[in-house]
Amino acid sequence: MDLAKYAALFLTESREHLSVCNQLLLEWERTPESRSPVGGLFRAVHTIKGMAATMGYAGVADLAHRLENLLDALRGGRVAADPGVFQLLFRSVDALGKMPTSAINASSIAATSASPLCCDPETAREKRRRNGRCGAIVSDKLMMVRLPL
Fold this sequence. Notes:
This protein is mainly α.
């Protein structure tokens, strides 16, 4: 099956879902005690992940999957919505917003170098041990989230 004819639809649909993500993030940032935006964010990111996987855009699907895991932890109360988490969410959604166009233009998202936004405590401790700094937002509840540079 030639997926190229569906690329424009993927781009349009992903942009709509990313717009929803940004609206919900802004709403949630204003009222962090509210739990309702988390469900909408999760559904939008889940949809992007599924569309990207179907189209074969592994890098997009991977980042969406990692973001989905973070949202699930927030939804389940395993992670608190603090300013650092909001920063991570906004940066992740921004990066996710840039990826569909690159994927459609046949850029190799999976091969793109990445920088950590969030890492587990062991990774952060090892980075600090090696070079004196981590450069990442650290949480004991989150897995590594990597964004293309």
